Amino acid sequence: MHIMKIIAATARMLPIFVVVLSVGLLAPPADAHHSYAMYDGSVYRVFTGVIVRVIPNAAHFEFHFVPLNEKRDALVRDEKGEPLVWVVQMESAGEALKQGITLESFPRGAVISMGVHPRRDGKPAGDRGDSGVFQCPKGSVPKLGMHCDSVEGSKSFGSGVLPKETAKPPR
User: Fold this and answer.
1) Which of 19, 55, 61, 148 has the fewest CB atoms below 10 angstroms from its CB?
2) pLDDT single digits (tens) 143-165
3) For residues 112 and 110, what is the distance between their CA atoms, to the nearest angstrom?
């Protein structure tokens, strides 16, 4: 008698299990990736700066850099006199690797130029978008107001170019 109750309970539960499993398998995959709404995709700022840190996260490769001033002879500083570090989110580490962007190819102190879609809230951060990344040869910086793509011997990473700047930094 006890076995009959178990068989009956199993017979009632099996169709429910099949429906739940089917819904789970047939549902489209959830996209857990975040939105880019925090970045202003209509604006490009173009920076030349010095790498202070590279984070090769699986989801997003990150460059942390301090911009150089227009004369290219000093770091940009905040109101406290500290170097103003910008954080730029890029593609996945796997995609970055395909473009030659690695932790080793961008050591601390490397001078780079790239376009950035800035955050809408004004914080010193942004997204690379489709901008190319250019690295000046070791020990060199571009001339006044220029970027690494203008320096002989510079390296290009990715297929993009430096975009035209569509916004100037606040003064």
Assistant:
1) 19
2) 999 999 999 999 999 888 999 99
3) 6
- Amino acid letter, residue 9: A
Q: Read off the amino acid at residue 116.
A: V
* Domain total in the chain: 1
**What are the φ/ψ torsions at residue 25 (nearest 5 degrees)?**
-80, -30
Q: Three-state SS string across 82-109, please?
A: CECCEEEECCCHHHHHHCCCCCCCCCCC
Distance CA 67, CA 70 (A): 9
What's the Cα-to-Cα distance from 17 to each of 5, 9, 12, 39, 85, rounded to whole Å? 18, 12, 9, 44, 53
Contact 55, 62 (CB under 8 A): yes
Answer yes or no: pTM beyond 0.85.
Answer: no
Helix, strand, coil distribution of the chain in percent, nearest 5: 20, 25, 55
pLDDT in tens, 17-75: 444 444 444 444 444 445 668 888 899 999 999 999 999 888 888 999 999 999 999 99
Alpha helices in 27-155 (DSSP H): 93-98
Domain assignment present for residue 36? The answer is: no
Asked if residue 139 belongs to a domain, the reply is yes
